[in-house]
Amino acid sequence: MFDPRLIPALALVLAAGGTALADTPRLDAQRMFPSGEIAFQKICARCHTGREDAVGPDLTANDYDPDTIRHFARHGSGPMPAFTESMVDAVTLDQIAAHLASIRKETEE
Ligand code: HEC
């Protein structure tokens, strides 16, 4: 299973390997995941799928606007850890929200 806590370490290793650091786009300024769906699966799903062992509420069962997703992700809540920009970038958070909205819509139809 992919461990999101490894991302900062990985970013450091990659940055140290770059020769012209000034010309290298910062990793945290880029999208880190190919899609909101994959980001959700990798970062959030283990706590948020409604599985028996999930510790958080099932995020696919409710409507969450992007502001709510951003707020919880950046600040955490109770047992939920906060995610910094270097763990999940802002664009990806919006895509997670869009992904959740899209699967929510499917279940409504
Ligand atoms: C380690 C487990 C864990 C991970 C990983 C996690 N969460 Fe959570 N999350 C929780 C828990 C537990 C709660 C309930 C917090 C509370 O009751 O205060 C929660 C609450 C939330 C809520 C509020 C839900 C509600 O109806 O009150 C949102 C939105 C949310 N998380 C989004 C996310 C997103 C987006 C991610 C991925 C970037 C994520 N979480 C990753 C554990 C997690």
TrEMBL record:
GO MF entry, a single one: metal ion binding
Protein's UniProt keywords contain Heme: yes
Signal peptide: 1-22
Alphabetized InterPro entries for the sequence: Cyt_c-like_dom, Cyt_c-like_dom_sf
Cross-referenced Gene3D superfamilies: Cytochrome c-like domain (1.10.760.10)
Keywords: Heme, Iron, Metal-binding, Signal
Residue stretches making up the Cytochrome c domain: 31-104
SUPFAM superfamilies for the chain: Cytochrome c (SSF46626)
Cross-referenced Pfam families: Cytochrome_CBB3
Identification of the protein by name: Cytochrome C oxidase, cbb3-type, subunit III
